[in-house]
Amino acid sequence: MVPTIALAGNPNSGKTTLFNELTGSRQHVGNYPGVTVEKKEGTLVNNGYRMSVVDLPGTYSLTAYSLEEVVARDFLVNEKPEVVIDIVDASNLERNLYLAIQFLEMGLPVCIALNMVDVAQKRGIEIDAEKLSAFLGVPVIPTVARTGLGKKDLIATARRMAEEDRKQSLFEISYGDDLDRALAKMTPEIEIHHFLTETYPARWVALKYLENDKQILSKGHQKNSAFSEKLETIGKKVSTHLKATVNSYPEAMIADHRYGYINSIIKQGMVHRQHDQNRLYTSDKIDKIVTHRFLGPILMIAVLLGLYHFTFTYGEIPVGWFARFFGWVGDTASFYLPDGHLKSLVVAGVVDGAGGVLGFVPLIMFMFFGISILEDSGYLARVAFMLDRVFSLFGLHGSSVMAFIVSGGIAGGCAVPGVMATRTLRSPRERLATLLTVPFMNCGAKLPVFALLIAAFFSENEAIFMLLITIVAWGGALLVAKLLRLTVIKGEPTPFVMELPPYRFPTFKGLLIHTWERTWQYIKKAGTVILGVSIILWAMMTYPGLPESKRSEFAKQREAIMAAPPPSTARPDKLPGKEAGLSELAAIDGAEAEANLKNSIAGRMGIALESLTRWAGFDWRTNIALVGGFAAKEVIVSTLGTAYSLVEADAANSGSLSQTLANSPKWRPLVALSLMIFIVFYTPCFVTVVCISREAGSWKWGVFSMVLNTLLALILAALIFQIGLALGY
Amino acid sequence: MTRLMMRKMKDNQTGTISAIKAGGELGRRIRDMGLIPGRSIKVQGRAPLYDPVALRIMGSTLTMRNNEADYIEVETE
Ligand SMILES: Nc1nc2c(ncn2[C@@H]2O[C@H](COP(=O)(O)OP(=O)(O)O)[C@@H](O)[C@H]2O)c(=O)[nH]1
Asked: In sequence order, which residues have a C-beta less than 8 Å from that of residue A700 and are 6 or more positions away?
């Protein structure tokens, strides 16, 4: 068996950097079983000795309050790693030792990597690693994860610990008379009853009972409810006593004593500080400008716009390559395959489907690269800080802004990378609410539809209508988020209390690994499902096809035209013939495509849905286009073109379609307005739905967003249409 | 010496935490970040919309919402 090293530590302590340094490229990302917390695993090979390395989520403590903390501690007790490397940020010693102490109390085989000693040194902080090691009873190795300093020493120590497999001596600190007395009473009893002791040290269990830790309490209750209640009674007694005498809770006392203990370590001459602790460093001086009342927001808008342009301007270039490549594959396939269902399946189903999946890849890569820069440098935390006031009003978090912007908060983004951008959010409820509302933003694929409708019906006020739609999308998203937070995802806001990490220059290697990891996950996980669904959608818009009699009718019409001069034996579409003959042929092709679409499953759905959608003013042609829009919103325009029997070449050119719509008796500005509102709100495209399900950890949420959004869209569109009708538009 | 809630503190004002009046998840978070009685803090500034607030503590910067700072009582000179 290969021994396992678990990497644990505070957020921003350099965990990821050390993980990359230890494992190099031998790593993969998955999830912890049953939860959406990312789990990174890798292999460390050193002189032929292999160890498996697991990166635990970064946490400040080990309570049962946050998912990350539960995941970390469950892994440590269930998987029993041979070595736990605790990364301690030397420039932020107190807060990092607070976690270290909790690992020691769990009796884990800890080795401390005293990281960022370079930063500490610059700040005039000198730490005596040997003294600290002697005091805590575990190895302490100074490191600089960024340059690899101390890495060899760390690996050697970890190896020695794994091979020795020595029992970690128990580590106890005093929690004051009252609590110590209770612990002394509970611990031996827990041992006698073997109560949870196969997984946890007895004193730790007692401590968790005093802290009223929900997870341990419920585990204990399952194990032996009578004894569990006895422990709870002891806990309650101490709690009442503390309340009466010192007006405090056990939890508070425990935290106070832990920090008190850390203070006493520091006072023993292990740490020398040259300066006053709260003096300002360069980073704080930067903050004076970056979070300045006026300059801050201006700079932030500039940075967000920059990210946006970076993603969608440069990202578009490789997107174009991909599109051309898949276009070429499609052409090649249609050249070699015989006409018929197989060809249609390969070209329209598989190639377009794969193109749909991979088409997003460059966007995701560019977006994550940009976000990684903001995240690793520490700027993202400042964005959250500046915008939290606005977003918390709607039950969201300051960090939600990134997901909204990327999804199209400034018209023209994409919800797929937007949904994935919610990963930077650590508050579960806020994150879910963000996930479910970002699809309302106006992504790049909705824009052509708006452009088409605005050009056809509101051409005098194009800019105003575009702005209006953006405002509607934002307003709608924030209000729905609020609504969700009051109903389905209700609950107290997750505490915002967080660190503003000092600004740091990100490393290029770190950025690349970060970007690639997330992109690869998208390709791997979303890819398979998306391909399947795109084939289904293709089938829905193709089958059952026209009956033989109809088809031969169209064929006859074609023959009739071809029979007319100039005579030819070649296939009609290769015919160099007269202009008139060509356009007539094209018209027949168009009519056949329209008839085929109308008869397809999607077409029948469109017709069946008319009874509902006529409240909003949509006929079956619009409905089919909307069904197609579920595949990708771009498809709305081209499907609408087919439904109005425009020839393919013409449909791509929205000018003629917009003419057709403007002249059609069924269309008028009110219908266009209602349709635009509908498109803003209705179901996300299925790629987004797949990503939502992945990120939320359940298909339930994907389905929820399809149903809720479509209902909401229908209600809003119907309201607008009916009010408009009543007002005589 | 005056005692006041952290929300009332001015930018750049220093003080010593005298009590944390929150329990549960919030209380836990606050304490885990090192905000415990006896600790000296300095208000570093506020976000452009006056909320959240940024604090200097133990040589690093923390931020919290005003309604969370309402649970922290500070003694100032
Ligand atoms: N100066 C310095 N910077 C470091 C060191 N270790 C990590 N960093 C930087 O600190 C930042 C946060 O590191 P990261 O590994 O992402 O932290 P995590 O949140 O714990 O995973 C990154 O910009 C790293 O490049 C170190 O030892 N010295």
From this structure: A693
